[in-house]
Amino acid sequence: MPTPAKPCGGRFSDEVQAVLSQNRGRAQWATYACEVCGARVGAVQLQGKWVPEQHWPSVKYPPREPVTRSDRSRPRREDAVPAGSAFR
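Above: the chain's sequence. Below: its structure in token form.
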């Protein structure tokens, strides 16, 4: 498979810039459409302005899945003994 030669020199629209600039929370964790090539990519702040992460339009990127970390999602171990209890 040939290696893509040149990354996109992307930029975000004014609307996306406004959303990213106003939100101090998690807006920068989402993906947004690059105004040049249309690919959905993450955002990074460079010299006070939000720009798309470096990407190549010819590459198909997998969608980002949100990661949830919770001990409750793990299957319960049947052989585990709660702290402070007597052994079996």
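Residues 79 and 85 are 13 Å apart (CA to CA).
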